Amino acid sequence: MKSGICYLTGAGPGDPGLVTLKAQQCISIADVLVYDALSSAELLSWTKQDCEHIDVGKRAACHKMRQEEINQLLVDKVREGNIVVRLKGGDPMIFGRGGEEAAVLAEAGLKYEIIPGISSAFAGPTYAGIPLTHRDYGAQLTLFSGHEAEGKEKGDVDYEALAKTPGTKIFLMGVARLAIISQRLTSYGMAPETPIALTRWATTGRQKTITGTLATIADIAKKEKFTAPAVGVIGNIINEMDKIKWHEDRPLQGKRIVVTRSQAQAGGLVNELTALGADVLELPVLRIVDPADKREFAELVTTAHSYDWLVFSSTNGVRRFFDAFFSVYKDARSIGGVKIAVVGPGTQQAVESYRFSADLVPDNHIAEGLLDAFRNDHDIENQTILWVRPKNARSVLTEGLQEQRAIVDECIAYSIEAETSDPTGAAERFKRDGADLVTFTSSSTAQYFHDLELPWPSGCKAASIGPITTAKLQELGKNDILEAEDHNIEGLVKTIVEALT
Asked: Is 3.40.50.150 the CATH classification of the domain at 122-249?
């Protein structure tokens, strides 16, 4: 029997870059991923293909599964011999009930490990520009919970002692009780004019910070419609924020942008938009699957050296081809003297990542541009060409190359299918909160997004990577379309920044 284990793992505060390497390693080998409502859907894409995803949805007062049920789920899955990762926002041992889950596993005699994470209690103030220790504001830091269990006659927080404690104070889960927290602290002697800052959705594109005093913060939060999840900081150290705030001044800060690429492909675009401050919704509308005829694909890969040209029209095709090639051949020279043509710089970079160079890159980064480049620069009459393509690609390359009297074989490397589930929960959030812009990187993403029949928000724009995608969007009834001047991810991001800033 397999030996099961549970990794009680901190998912960090929201920015996937703040997840520890050990957490990422555990997620990558998990048989079962049990997760709360996460600020970053990217973490779900780190699992292996056959990993079972179980959303227990814990956030504030909205739980998909009671804690007792989660405890039993962990026990059952570990007993079955699975590697289970229990992914919890922030640090599992800081107001995360990780200690309770560990105790249940221990009582059941099961193996477990605890992997700390960066808590929003510390990351939130840091991303807001608030140093939590500073020689001018004392050397003491106090952390407390703003939430108290219902039905308790006496709370767990000693507000009298807290009010008299010097230094900076941090609290989590207290937005709904701001007035009560402020009143209790001031009733025990803390000055009403004591500064307080609240940061919600810390480290993400949704991050927002408001400031006030103990006397005013509850009214300010109500006026701003400021809701959980948020971290609060109390103390004069907040005065430093005006000097060193940095995260909320980026060009796309607060702009909600939807990325429709598959989970396997979305990382680059998501990371670039996130780095510019965008609140990115990962809403994959398609998925990449193996070709129906794997044998034919393998045979064409192994005979690639016999062709005059290899043509790649997507990064997926590049990766699948070369991964298959190097599973058979150990020497790159086995590819022989074949030349390589690519549709654009993104595909070129993918080829170069395997230490090959592209012999032909068109100025116009679409299939028609590649055909023009062949026509203008190369005589391919009677030359053999292997086009590595998805099953449902346009036939324009085959037809255009044959018109130039080339001998064309098609190597079906993968298929594109509609993503029928909502693996990140983004579709539901899009319906609820809307967006400023939706990105489309292919005509397939446009079609599959349209097929979801999601309501299009008022004022929302569509951003297209190129003319073929734009034409598909127009065919589907979209009019307010931004088109990238350079038909690649970098060009798309540049166009988005120019349009939204």
From this structure: no
Annotated catalytic residue 173: yes
Kind plus residue range of the DSSP H or E element containing 403: helix 396-403
What is the architecture of the domain spanning 294-414?
3-Layer(aba) Sandwich (3.40)
pLDDT-flagged residues of the chain (< 70): 1-2, 38-39, 58-63, 149-155, 423-424
Q: What fold characterizes domain 256-285+419-500?
A: Rossmann fold (3.40.50)
CA distance 92 to 116: 7
CA distance 20 to 118: 8
Question: Which residue out of 15, 91, 169, 173 is catalytically annotated?
Answer: 173
| Active-site annotation holds for 36 | yes
Question: Annotated catalytic residue: which of 58, 88, 255, 472?
Answer: 58
* CA 187 vs CA 172, 184, 196, 215, 316: distances in Å: 21, 5, 16, 11, 63
| Residue of 31, 36, 91, 279 marked active site | 36
Q: What is the value of pTM for the model shown? A: 0.74
Q: Is 15 a catalytic residue?
A: no
DSSP 435: -
Cβ–Cβ under 8 Å, residues 491 and 463: no
The per-residue pLDDT for range 178-232, each reduced to its tens digit, is: 999 999 999 999 999 999 999 999 998 889 999 999 999 999 999 999 998 899 9
- For the chain, give every domain's residue range: 5-117, 122-249, 256-285+419-500, 294-414
What is the 3-class SS of 317-380, one letter each residue? HHHHHHHHHHHHCCCHHHHCCCEEEECCHHHHHHHHCCCCCCCECCCCCCHHHHHHHHHHHCCC
Q: Which residue has the tokens 């990422």?
A: 24
In this predicted structure, what is the pLDDT of residue 139?
81
CATH number of 5-117: 3.40.1010.10
